[in-house]
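Format notes (please read before filing issues)

Several people have asked whether sequences and C-alpha cells are stored in separate files. They are not. Every record keeps both together, in the order shown below: the sequence lines, then the C-alpha cell lines. Line labels are part of the format and must not be stripped during preprocessing.
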Amino acid sequence: MTALPVRAPVPVSFAGFGRVIFFLTTFFEVIADAQREAAAAHKRYPFAEW
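Then the structure lines:
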C-alpha cells in the first residue's frame, strides 16, 4: 500500500491582476477628468480654436 503525499494548496497570486485593474481604473479616471475639463473650457470659450 502506498501513501499519497499531502501537499498544501498552491496559493493563486492576484497581485498582477490587481495592478492591471488599478492601472486601468486610473487611466479611465484621467480620461474622464480630461473630458470634463475640455467640456468646461468649451463652455467658457465656445469659439476657441483648439
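For reference, the curators noted about this record: Helices lie at 15-44. The chain is about 60% helix and 0% strand.
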